[in-house]
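Researcher: I'm comparing several assemblies side by side, and this is the next one on my list. It has 584 residues spread over two chains. Same procedure as the others: predict the full complex and return the structure.
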Amino acid sequence: MEITFAVLLWGVRILFLVLVYLFLIRVFSSLQRALATENAIAARPTGLAHLVVQRTVRGAFRVGDRLPLRAVNGLGRDAGNDIVINDEAASARHALVEFADGEWWVEDAGSTNGTVVNGEVVRSRERLHFGDELAIGRVALRLEQ
Amino acid sequence: MRAQTAVPLGRGRFTELGLLVWVAAIAITGFVAVLATETSSFRPTAVVVPLVFLALMLSLHVFLVGIRFRGDQVLLPIAAGLTAIGLVLVQRLASDLLLQQLSWSIIAAGAFAATIVVPRDLTALARYKWTWALLGVLLLIAPLLPVIGREINGARIWIKVGPGSIEPWEAVKILLVIFFAAYLEEYREVLSHAQRRIGPFPVPPIPYLVPIVAMWGIAMLVMIFEKDIGATTLFFGIFLAMLFLATGEAFYAIIGLGLLIVGGFVAYQLFGHVQARVDTWLRPFDEDLRFSTGYQLVQGLYALANGGLIGVGLGNGMPDRIPIVWSDFVFDAFAEEAGLAGAIALLALYLVFLYRGMLIALRAPTMFLQLLAAGLSFIVALQTLVIVGGNLRLIPLTGITLPFVAYGGSSLVTNWMLVGILMRVSQVSERMRGGGGPS
């Protein structure tokens, strides 16, 4: 009788440790799943706005192309960008256009030739309104609904 | 019209609910093991306290589902799991305090719910940054005032409220993170793109350096007058980490650490209580310290050694040999009874908490929210590091609480509010990403 109680008690103690580890594993796997879902969300177009090509160079877009925007968009010459700009005047990672606080924003990502909005050079981060014209290298894009 | 952006998440909070089931299992087995050892029999009454706690956590879950909260689903179960382990340890180490701690966890749950609902717009907090700073500094110096201040165990960090006493530092840390985040968001440009440089070092305009020096001054003041080395480390550590996160200038961190080392060295030379802490840390087994100031630490080390790989079993150890074990040495007590295996799992839980917090920070839409989330997660991480390091004799021991686990009301309430704010930040990003906006 005494022995069975002791054995049972040890069972509970070991069970406690096992449960803590199982909990940890569950937490890790749900973090993993959350990461995958969030990446899927980030990759989805927001359906909120487009950049419409106004001016372009050979090998890049055609005038009038509508480029759908996501929540966060990298712009530049590098193929890893969300919007690839095939112009030698554009830097590999040129600018960032993102939707935050219900507004659109543009941020220069340290480009060589600068990012221009409505003829003015972007310093750090600026609001982007619908109808604004964003110039990167020789390509010009207008933000539209 | 934006129907195509329907959000796949947030219909239910099944991840959270699923994880809470595991928390339930941990809490019940923990209590059963401790109480069965104590009474030498299995009694059904052992599950009463864990069930009350679980009902509390479940009601928080239902509350979040009810208000259609769309934020993080992992932080609440982690915090609940840690709090449950904390309750098991209070039952084990100071069972007369169990009801108090359980009541505190109810208040903490209330504070958490309030944090989820009350600030309608989290970003608006940034507008009142100087209010938070002033409030923080006032609370920080409050224990020094003659009537309300209280000195317990050599540290003057409590204020008297009614019959009990609270540790204002706990609330201060959240206020300061809000202030730092707002301040750094506003002046990040000036601080990180300094025009003048001396060698490789950026030199920002002098006025912007004032807050940094002021922070250091206040930190030193706390160390000298409140005799609280732990709070000083935490306070200055958070500030340096956030400064580095905001500016990306390692220079500030190096200068700050230099200031801290200089301050620490001077304090060591001048003040007896700092000297005692360091001596105890370096040679706790020496004849003159072994049974006086070093006693607590030495007993803690014996407890660790006694634990071994899987521990001596919950309820089966001798952690009561460590003085004030329930507030300062819970980690050693847990490591004795749950062993290295349990201790590593506990640390892993904090690690996951930090990981989740940093992910929330990365995904936050504005600089303020990013810094806020990063700063808050960092508090939990640094606090764990400082107290566990102290318990393991890696660094001098300081009187910081092990977040969520150690006995203590102020700490539990503020840590749960901290979880609330982190979840709010995650909700803001979620809404933005969902694209549908608040409906």
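Model: For your comparison table: The longest strand of chain A covers residues 50-55.
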